Amino acid sequence: MGKKEERARPEMLSVYLYIPNIVGYMRVLLNIVAFAVCFSNKTLFSLLYFFSFCCDAVDGWCARRFNQVSTFGAVLDMVTDRVSTACLLVILSQVYRPSLVFLSLLALDIASHWLQMYSTFLAGKSSHKDVKDSTSWLFRLYYGNRIFMCYCCVSCEVLYIILLLIAKNQTENLLNVVVSTLTQISPLSFLLALTLFGWSMKQTVNIIQMKTAADVCVLYDIEKQQKKP
Question: Looking at 56, 81, 130, 133, which residue is catalytic?
């Protein structure tokens, strides 16, 4: 028993030190520094936050390139994504009114992804991105087309960064700021419009994902009840 534990420790350490996981730790550190200066230096925050977000693609590439795909790495990746987005939404809820808009988006993001992960476990699937059996074409497109998925995810994060950058004080009216920016003929207004569309697609997918995952959980309960003598 002791020898098995001794062999397991180096193997565990090697997984923690996988290149993609090290990139994941760097993402966490970048986010910590970014949120530490989010109010004092919005530009630095935006650069650090977006760089951390872009590293999400880097750790995925490293995992495939060096054959270092791990469950721990996948969980670290998702937790980092969800926590960083949640923190940014909380900050925006302190800057804009009504704050409930951003708190609702936070709740939707966490609930939909948590339910999707749990329903994946119940269905015996190896990945939460396996949605080939879904009846929703948008849901299948989102997880089946990397370009579309990337556009939606990038749109969300860029939109939230833009909203933080253009806020002049901590009592901004969200609708007034968005409408005012969109009515201006500028590169910023174009970028805002482009990201708003991708953001809306992402939120629609989150709603579909939450409902689909909830259905899987309910069907699991029904099947379990039917198997009882």
Answer: 81
Neighbours of 178 (CB within 10 A): 19
The model's confidence at residue 5, banded by pLDDT at 50, 70 and 90, is low
Amino acid sitting at position 192 = L
Two structure tokens written together for 80: 């980092």
What does pTM read for this prediction?
A: 0.90
| Cα radius of gyration (the chain) | 20
Amino acid at 10: P
Helix (H) / strand (E) element for 97: namely strand 96-97
In the block, residue with structure tokens 């693609």: 57
81 counts as catalytic: yes
Give me the count of residues in the chain.
229
**DSSP-assigned letters across all residues of 36-60:** HTTTT-HHHHHHHHHHHHHHHHHHH
